[in-house]
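Collaborator request, handled under Task 6.
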Amino acid sequence: MEYLFQQGEISKGVFRRGSHLKIMDSCGVQGVEADLLDHHTLHEAMEGVDVVYYMASPMPDADSDFIKVNTEGVLNVLEAATEAKAKAFVYLSALDVYGFVSRTVTPSSPFSPSTEYQKSKAEAERILQEFAKRNGQPRIAILRPAKAVGPRDESLVVPILRMVASGKGTLPPSGRMSFSHPKDIAQAMYRATTWNSLSGAAVLVKSFDATLVELATQIATAMGKPFEAGRSGFLARSPLSRYTTEHMKASIRIDEQPGWKDLGFAPTYTLKSTCEEIARWYEKEPWVAEDA
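Structure tokens returned to the collaborator:
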């Protein structure tokens, strides 16, 4: 999101009551309070908008109605964008639509969602693609990024930082899988506004491939700390949430990305540069590794 703000691409940001607005305020972005589940509150947010970036998606571990947000919310915003005559609608989806089945995926790989969260993300994509078939505007682009890792990620990076700070930790078994840096995801979203593919098409986004142990070890190296990574077993529990643990175990990897050339996208971040940025963030804010 910050990348899009810095590009001057976002002039308005929709927030729900109680949201943290520090980033929007620091970038001079107009904040508009709205409820994605109330179509009428979205009119002000859409006034004068050419491009809509849809990034609202509560995680399944959050205390929120993610099913309604991922389905009704998407349709409400899409309809409001259409009424406002927006030209492009970029939707941030996830590899979760493929389910947690260990495999290599392409854009045409079949969906196999098993959890309610995964099913709601897949349903959101269906809604978007059906809408694209019936309407010429706005043009719809769907992005499915790999697991996001970078500063401020609480689902994976913060637990790893806590392990590294203690010198050791247990990790769920993981094969080689794909990860995305948030700025690479934002760059792809930005370029998707002028993507020449058919409306409703999807593109996969990743920055690099690595095992979970490689990720944790590289973060420790960037922090200059010794770290011993063990694997969680019968007597050792992973500090990651259940959903994140299952995500890591699946080790989903992106293979072909035929949309990259047309999208004009190439990832900027590598495993090394991502972990170095995480280490710099930790150096500035070491409190993030403190136990809650």
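The cover message to the collaborator said: "The two ends are 26 Å apart (CA to CA). The CA atoms of residues 161 and 278 lie 9 Å apart. Please let us know whether this matches your experimental observations."
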